[in-house]
Amino acid sequence: MPVERLIRTVMISVERLPVLLDCDRQSIFNSAMSAACLGLEVDGVTGQAYLIPFKNSRLGRYEVQFMAGYRGLMALARRSGEISTIQAHEVYEKDSFDYCFGSEPVLKHKPAKYDRGALAYLYATAKLKDGGVQFEVMSNDEIEAHRDRYSRAAQDGPWKTDYVAMGKKTIVRQLCKFLPASAELQKAIALDEYAEAQIPQGLGVLVGDVETDEGTGEAIEQLPDKKA
After folding, report:
1. Contact criterion met (CB below 8 Å) for 75 and 185
2. pLDDT, tens digit, 9 for 90 and up, residues 76-111
3. What is the CA radius of gyration of the chain?
4. If we measure between CA atoms, which residue out of 101, 118, 100, 21 comes closest to residue 63?
5. pTM over 0.85
6. What is the CA 43 to chain-centroid distance, rounded?
7. How far apart are alpha carbons 213 and 202 in whole angstroms?
């Protein structure tokens, strides 16, 4: 990503969310570098990625973390060269929707024309270049359970202001774990899971080193349950 483009996207993000200027400057730099290495824009407009402030309780300061959007994850999935199309959709109660897994999986969705009712499901599908199709489906209850378990900002931030987009990202992230993925996509998923759990990211995740807690320097083996 050209330096000028990176600076412009960061400035747009700061203009949209001035609280970023109150965060640790090194964390802003680290997050911007993460975006640049992955080739995703953090302007908050394209939906590819975002700069998200959070409080590092160990260090007693506010820091910025890189968080991919579902459009960013889909863009990285396409760059793998193995996927021809990938998409995510929401399903409402009055839509015609049916799916089944097994040796001959099927997914059919026809949105209702007018009043579609309440949100019921979210799904993501990907078509591989060899003709294969992979899809994942989660009910709205499953999305909420996932949010409540893993997100430390379940009742605030993007989960409150952009619930459907966060739900789409959750299901796309689940789908991507079963697709031929580039190293960049795997790193973006790891960074995104850290951001949602509000675990300091550091640059180790991005460059492929041992994942460590920026506050303690200790290796992090897995994401903890939010309630643990």
Report:
1. no
2. 998 888 899 999 999 999 999 999 998 889 999 999
3. 18
4. 21
5. no
6. 15
7. 7
Q: How far apart are CA 212 and CA 209, in angstroms?
A: 9
Rounded to whole angstroms, how far apart are CA atoms 119 and 140?
7
The whole-angstrom distance between residue 118's C-alpha and the CA centroid of its chain comes to 23
Q: Where are the alpha helices (DSSP H) in 51-182?
A: 70-78, 140-150, 158-161, 163-176
Residue position matching structure tokens 């180790």: 204
Average pLDDT, stretch 65-79?
Answer: 90
Q: How far apart are CA 200 and CA 75, in angstroms?
A: 25
Q: What mean pLDDT do residues 54-61 have?
A: 80
Written as six digits, the tokens of 202 are 């550091």
Tell me how far apart the alpha carbons of residues 49 and 44 are, in angstroms, rounded to a whole number: 6
Q: How far apart are CA 41 and CA 158, in angstroms?
A: 17
Strand residue runs (E) in 40-105: 49-56, 61-68, 83-92, 96-100
Sign of CA dihedral 42, 43, 44, 46: negative
